[in-house]
Structure formats: C-alpha cells, structure tokens
Amino acid sequence: MEDQEHMHAWAVGHDPLVVPLFLNLERARKVAHARARAVWDQHGLTPAEFDVLATLRNAETPYELTPGQIQDRVLITSGGLTKVIHLLEEKNYVERSVARNDNRVKPVRLTAAGNRCVTKAMKDIVIMTRDWMKSILTQDEIRTATSVLSKMAEG
C-alpha cells in the first residue's frame, strides 16, 4: 500500500481529500471486476455477454427487448452489441424474431438455456461478492458504503 501511496503522491497533492477516494474507488472497481470475470469465465461468458443476458432477464416476461432498448441499458457500442447478440445466438442463449409491426426491428429474446445460464452466473457472482465483501467489511460498513456510493451515483 505504501508503494501505491508514493506512486500517487503527486496526484494526491492536488486534493488530499478527494483524490484518495477516487483512486480507491477505481482500485476497488478493478478488484471487483477481476473477481466477477473469474465467475463469468466459469460460465463461458464475456462481461458484455453477461451484461446483455442480465439486461434481458431484467426485462418483463418473455424477457425480450429490441436492440435499441438493450443499447439504452448497457455500456456497449451498437456495433459491439450486434457482435454480442450474434455470439449469444450461436450459444443458443438468445433468439431473434421480427416485430409484428415493423420488419426492420428484430427483438432479442432470452431462451430457456440463456435464462438458466444467466441465473446460475448471477447466483455465483452474488455468492462470490457477498463472501468477498463480508470478509473485509462489517455489515454497517457495507450499508454505509452502499449509501455513499448510491449518493455519488445519483449526483
């Protein structure tokens, strides 16, 4: 940790209150992402594939959205989204159909296999995250961090 502090001393000097918070948020995000990536890998998913599957699973039954609706909810470019949808189709996790009122729109629907995959992956990510966070934070610290980060995310 001392190496990290020395490495960022110049940046921290600009604002000793805010810069350490920002740097620690970024480090925590990287650690959380690396841990989640290990779970996604176990399920044969990329982060983007998981994001799309989870987005579809959060949609109302029949777990179907248009590509534009998915695009509004994920952090993937439209070209990247097209590629992810094709990869998920190849895995039989999603299927495309033609909208009744517009032949140009092809909604994306989560398949039963896709639902099983994303449900298991989500369960494993929650277990991993819970165990990791509870190993280093108290319940009160988790509640406080959640509250503070929610406030930051809204601002």
Task: Summarize the structure in words.
The chain contains 8 helices and 3 strands; from the N terminus they run ααααβααββαα. The chain has helices spanning about 1-5, 10-15, 20-40, 45-60, 65-75, 80-90, 110-135, 140-155, and strands at about 65, 95, 110. It has a single domain, classed as Winged helix-like DNA-binding domain superfamily/Winged helix DNA-binding domain (Arc Repressor Mutant, subunit A, Orthogonal Bundle). It has about 160 residues and is mostly helical. It is elongated, with a radius of gyration of 19 Å. A 3-stranded antiparallel sheet has the order 1-3-2.
Number of helices: 8
Which regions contain 5 or more consecutive residues with pLDDT less than 50? Answer: none
Strand order of the largest sheet: 1-3-2
The amount of beta strand, in percent, is 5-15%
Please supply descriptive tags for the structure shown above.
single chain; 155 residues; mainly alpha; Arc Repressor Mutant, subunit A; 3-stranded antiparallel sheet; 3 strands; elongated
